[in-house]
Amino acid sequence: MIRRNGRTGTGAEGTTRPRRARAAAAALALAAPLTLAASGDAGAAGTVWAASNRTIVFARYDTAEPVEDLYAIGPFGGLPTRLTHTPAVSDVMPSWSPDGKRVAFLRYGSGGAIDGIWTTNSGGGDLKPVPGTQGASDPAWSPDGKRIAYSKPVGTQREVFVSDVDGTPTTRLTHSAQDEFHPTWSPDGKNLAYSRADTATGNSRLMRIQLSTLAQTPITLAGSHDWTPDWSRGNRIVFSRVDSTGFAHLYVVRPDGGETHRITSARANDKYPSWSPDGGRLVFTRGGTDDADPEHLFLVRPDGTGLFQLTKTDSHDLEADWRP
User: How many H-runs (helices) and E-runs (strands) does the chain carry?
Assistant: First the structure.
């Protein structure tokens, strides 16, 4: 089962979500082509995505089609374009390459038959697996476009790894008795921030690791419930925190742990934040407390103003990443 935010099958708010991938044979999944098909406008789908300069890519599922596919939408809304349509497997956790030409994502199937990181070009073709990433999740493309960081199981724990886009060489960065996941790169490519989950307490804090020395430094306090960080070009880190209200809200912090402040405050769960290329806005998922409640994409400024609902269908729209 795919881990979300450090817990198997859970969201940032900690509530259990059922497995959504349909059972299918591995051979069928491998044979399923990656296709572009926009809802209501299949012929124009590739053109729409390729022509969009600042596309937001995300994962979507609903009750009619519980397998997750990747979709794209512009920052001003409109009809999302379906990028992948593979009925036997789910495609989730997309991450744009820094040149905006490829997307890395996690593909998984029933029972882990197909489970690893893949990449596709911006037209939805040239699908490639990243070797050595079986069981991995949370891909994050490096600022120089040469490497991908990800979380991968080692025994019963998850650790952070980094490899070249072709899968070699693979370097393990963390060695702990806790779950390390959802890495995000500093703008200069010299550090990663990530979430460290204490499996005994259920708490999660943000950590920073320097790649040259592997020195690790806490960003947020122990005893927190901090998830899914995203590091901006302006050297700020946004993340989702389950705070004293019992809801997950967006917060922003400096990489040294200073100047933490809350961005959102609604009685809803806000998670999976991603910075716009200029750092002026954030895209994130807002939803309820269980799997029956739809989850939509919203935009907001870092000061909490300018809230705008981007998607509105009765679906679950997750893990958005804003094209560089």
Answer: 2, 26
Token pair for 202: 């259920």
Q: What share of the chain is helix, strand, coil (3-state, %, to 5)?
A: 5, 45, 50
pTM above 0.70, yes or no: yes
Contacts of 184 (CB under 8 A, 6+ apart): 140, 192, 193, 194, 229, 230, 231, 237
Amino acid at 285: T
Angle at 279 between CA 274 and CA 280, to 5 degrees: 105
| CA gap 61, 69 in Å, rounded | 7
Distances (CA, A) of 235 to 30, 48, 253: 40, 32, 9
Q: Is 46 helix (H, G, I), strand (E, B) or coil?
A: helix
DSSP assignment of 99-157 equals TSSEEEEEEEEGGGSSEEEEEEETTS---EE-TT-TT-EEEEE-TTSSEEEEEEEETTE
Q: Are 215 and 224 in contact (CB under 8 A)?
A: no
Determine the Cα–Cα distance for residues 147 and 151; give it in Å rounded to an integer: 14
Alpha-carbon span 215 to 201, nearest angstrom? 24
Q: What percent of the chain has pLDDT over 90?
A: 65
Neighbours of 317 (CB within 10 A): 28
User: How many CA within 13 A on the CB side of residue 282?
Assistant: 32
206 three-class SS: strand
The confidence score (pLDDT) of residue 7 equals 31
Contact present, 12 and 271 (Cβ < 8 Å): yes
What is the rounded average pLDDT of the residues 251-262?
Answer: 96
206 close to 184: Cβ distance less than 8 angstroms: no
d(CA 105, CA 95): 6
Question: At 276, phi and psi to the nearest 5?
Answer: -70, 160
Own/partner contacts of 50-54, CB < 8 Å, gap of 24 or more, are 50/122, 50/123, 52/323, 53/323, 54/276, 54/277, 54/322, 54/323
